């Protein structure tokens, strides 16, 4: 074998520019589908020498002939040319120095620097290497897509491909046998301009499962990693509120780090809606802004329905969020979420949330301290809620500092917090406190884990318009109020670990004693500790109220048992416990929380897992006297990744006082399933049913079986296509978001860059 270096730019024929980027989607008539597979002949091992500069070409061949009379150079057998990371292989290369024609023949292939491969029967180029042609060309992109064409030419750097076919799908099955791609794009002519980094089609159409489906007149898309402006995949659906809907998003690339997507939503039942999304990524952070706008009739809910029934106005929604990292410690973030009316989001199926929160804040975090200053406002979408009673918090300041040096052998943490809440028609509250918490963890010689905790806090409150609070126990006394808090706790766990049932078993009794004097709670407003319920998660908490405005002022003992069993394919974790108040003073915890009497209810949780096939979690709360089930919650998943059943059941029968936040009783069941009946096909469905009746909620109008929402559909998903059809049935009417049926068609082609 002989090696030579040719002072020529011979490798321009590689069509390198046409191969760069994952989105070079080109395609041709159906007759070329079989050409999408690579040639069966193996490519010889690379052995051409590396050129010293870009003007040189590394050359290798089994045999080389030079006809000095006709000025023709012929290379035969495993011919290889290497330049700028691009490698050309062929059985034979003929270079006519008189005519300037260079021809590569037989099993021709070119690999570019990015790993894309071009195959062809014959490559012809001029000795200027700017213009050329390829017969029966196949491009295999490094990203997985491939292009086949009858003939390709390059003139002044612009490539024209005649009768071309592109697909991003696999063209071989799992056994390595050729198969038809799921989809492919066919075009009479495809033009690729490397300068514009764009591919343009003439008379293009798309085939799905071998059937002509969608004509694509004027199809054009970018190549490379940067992307470019263009149409995105449309979305089609139907529902009772708006009729048939067609979304046609258009993507505008403003810069490598900025873009805008404009989506017209066209309906048969209402006026069109315009959606816009702007995204910006910069060196210190990112933000996004999304807006919806239309003109239509606002139909209110509840008491608003009559007065708003004939009102027409601009309706819309704004959702913006972002974050800026000023330094490794400091960051800024914020969000704005507002809508023109309470039913817009559900009417147009944008969101089913019942509250929208806007925030702004700055925070600093390092190894031992945390500082945050924030503000937030809430827009309620709930029926019957007064916007004037909805709080605006500004500012909310929190600072915490942990001291690394032991203090009396333990870890000391200091906290300072302040909060100011205003309402347009409700109670205003300002709060500030300073707190210190000390924790010491010890292991005894018998293996017991003992944790000592001390907690001190001083609070100052000011409130006004207290009479406007709907629940008297939340109002507190108006004007300036103060409070001191002190608590101490000892928590002991004693784990016993050993072999059992072929695995490891752990049994850990746990006892906690908390001591706290009587604390002035009801004289202070309650803004953040309204939702309280005894659960396994807060059974051993120092304060079982969720927020700061209430602190559990009782001395108590809490006892429980933790159990776990770990086998090779099976695990079980469980906890059960109860608490008992040591003093007899009246509790501030209301009925229904499980904590109002001296003995609490019994709570527990059990989690079971078997391989990746079964996962079950059960939470419960039993009445301390009758062992009646006050909380029964089950969440389980059974099945594999492709075929599974999910079930959830919740029943709250807490016998709670009416009017308290988050203590209403209810009962519901949630079911979901997915079954894969073929390699790529599956059916799925879900349902939510309200089982609440007058036994759980005396003021409820439910009859004990009221469907909330059903969903049923089928999906096809392989390596290059996602296709789905979904039916949704809603049983709830909320203003102009009426109950009824909805249908959605989803179609997404992978490996198409837009």
Describe the structure.
This protein is mainly beta. It has four helices and 44 strands. It has a 26-stranded antiparallel barrel.
Attribute tags:
26-stranded antiparallel beta barrel, 754 residues, 15-stranded antiparallel β-sheet, 4 helices
Q: How are the SSEs placed, and which strands pair?
A:
Layout lengths: L1 E5 L9 H4 L37 E5 L1 E5 L4 E12 L2 E11 L4 E11 L5 E10 L5 E9 L5 E10 L2 E10 L15 E11 L4 E5 L1 E5 L2 E6 L3 E3 L7 E2 L3 E5 L3 E5 L2 E6 L2 E10 L5 E10 L2 E14 L5 H5 L2 E15 L4 E10 L4 H4 L7 E11 L3 E12 L11 E16 L2 E13 L5 E16 L5 E16 L7 H4 L3 E15 L2 E5 L2 E13 L40 E12 L2 E12 L20 E9 L3 E9 L6 E11 L4 E9 L13 E11 L4 E10 L15 E12 L3 E10 L9 E10 L5
Segments where pLDDT lies below 50 for 5+ residues?
A: 1-31, 41-45, 303-309
- Tell me the overall shape: elongated
- Mean pLDDT across all amino acids: 83
Rg calc: 35 Å
Q: How many DSSP helices? A: 4
- % residues in beta strands: over 45%
**Span from first to last CA?**
47 Å
Structural class category: mainly beta
Fraction of residues in helix = under 10%
Largest sheet: 26 strands, antiparallel, barrel
Total DSSP E strands: 44
């Amino acid at each position: 074998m002989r090696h030579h270096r040719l002072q020529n730019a011979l490798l321009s024929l590689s069509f390198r520019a046409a191969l760069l980027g994952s989105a070079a989607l080109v395609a041709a008539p159906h007759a070329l589908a079989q050409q999408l597979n690579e040639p069966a002949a193996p490519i010889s091992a690379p052995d051409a020498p590396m050129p010293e500069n870009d003007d040189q070409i590394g050359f290798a061949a089994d045999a080389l002939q030079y006809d000095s009379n006709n000025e023709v150079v012929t290379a035969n057998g495993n011919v290889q040319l290497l330049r700028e990371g691009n490698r050309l292989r062929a059985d034979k290369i003929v270079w006519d120095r008189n005519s300037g024609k260079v021809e590569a023949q037989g099993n021709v292939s070119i690999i570019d620097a990015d790993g894309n491969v071009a195959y062809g029967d014959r490559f012809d180029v001029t000795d200027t290497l700017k213009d050329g042609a390829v017969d029966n060309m196949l491009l295999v992109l490094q990203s997985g897509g491939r292009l086949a064409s009858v003939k390709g030419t390059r003139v002044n750097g612009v490539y024209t491909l005649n009768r071309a076919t592109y697909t991003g799908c696999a063209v071989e099955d799992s056994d390595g046998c050729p198969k038809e791609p799921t989809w492919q794009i066919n075009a009479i002519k495809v033009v690729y301009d490397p300068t514009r980094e764009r591919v343009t089609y003439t008379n293009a159409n798309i085939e799905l499962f071998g059937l002509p489906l969608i004509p694509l007149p004027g199809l054009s898309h970018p190549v490379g990693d940067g992307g470019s402006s263009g149409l995105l995949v449309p979305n089609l659906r139907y529902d009772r509120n708006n009729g048939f809907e067609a979304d046609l998003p258009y993507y505008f690339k403003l810069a490598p780090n900025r873009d805008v997507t404009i989506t017209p939503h066209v309906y048969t039942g209402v006026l069109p809606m315009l959606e816009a999304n702007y995204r910006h990524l910069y060196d210190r952070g990112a933000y996004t802004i999304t807006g919806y706008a239309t003109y239509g009739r606002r139909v209110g809910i509840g008491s608003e329905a009559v007065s708003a029934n004939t009102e027409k106005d601009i309706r819309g929604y704004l959702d913006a969020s972002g974050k800026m990292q000023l330094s490794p410690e400091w960051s800024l973030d914020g969000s704005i979420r507002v809508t023109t009316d309470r039913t817009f989001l559900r009417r147009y199926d944008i969101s089913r949330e019942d509250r929208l929160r806007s925030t702004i804040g700055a925070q600093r975090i390092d190894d031992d301290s945390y500082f945050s200053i924030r503000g937030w406002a809430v827009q309620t979408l709930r029926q019957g809620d007064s916007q004037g009673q909805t709080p605006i918090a500004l500012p909310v300041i929190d600072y915490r500092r942990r001291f690394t040096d032991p203090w009396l052998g333990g870890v000391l943490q200091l906290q300072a917090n302040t909060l100011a809440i205003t309402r347009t028609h409700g109670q205003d509250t300002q709060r500030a406190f300073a707190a210190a918490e000390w924790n010491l963890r010890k292991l005894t010689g018998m293996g017991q884990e003992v944790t000592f905790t001390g907690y001190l806090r001083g609070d100052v409150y000011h409130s006004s318009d207290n009479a406007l609070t709907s629940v008297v126990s939340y109002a507190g006394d108006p004007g300036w109020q103060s409070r001191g808090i002190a608590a101490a706790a000892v928590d002991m766990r004693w784990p016993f670990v050993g072999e059992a049932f072929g695995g490891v078993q752990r049994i850990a009794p746990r006892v906690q004693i908390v001591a706290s004097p009587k604390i002035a709670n009801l004289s202070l407003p309650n803004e953040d500790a309204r939702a309280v319920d005894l659960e396994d998660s807060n059974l051993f908490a120092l304060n079982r109220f969720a927020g700061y405005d209430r602190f559990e002022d009782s001395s108590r003992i809490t006892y429980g048992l933790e159990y776990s069993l770990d086998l090779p394919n099976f695990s079980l974790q469980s906890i059960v416990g109860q608490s008992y108040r040591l003093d007899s003073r009246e509790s501030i915890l209301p009925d229904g929380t499980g904590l109002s009497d001296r003995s609490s209810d019994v709570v527990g949780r059990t989690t079971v897992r078997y391989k990746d096939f079964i996962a079950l979690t059960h939470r419960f709360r039993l009445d301390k006297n009758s062992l009646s089930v006050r909380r029964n919650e089950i969440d389980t998943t059974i099945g594999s990744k492709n075929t599974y059943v999910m079930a959830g059941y919740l029943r709250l029968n807490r016998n709670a006082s009416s009017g308290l936040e988050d203590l209403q009783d209810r009962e519901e069941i949630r079911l979901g399933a997915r079954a894969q009946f073929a390699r790529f096909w599956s059916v799925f469905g879900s349902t939510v049913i309200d089982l609440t009746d007058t036994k759980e909620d005396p003021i409820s109008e439910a009859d004990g079986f009221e469907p909330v929402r059903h969903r049923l559909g089928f999906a096809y998903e392989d390596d290059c296509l996602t296709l789905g059809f979904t039916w949704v049935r809603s049983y709830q009417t909320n203003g102009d978001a009426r109950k009824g049926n909805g249908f959605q068609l989803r179609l997404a082609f992978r490996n198409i860059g837009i």
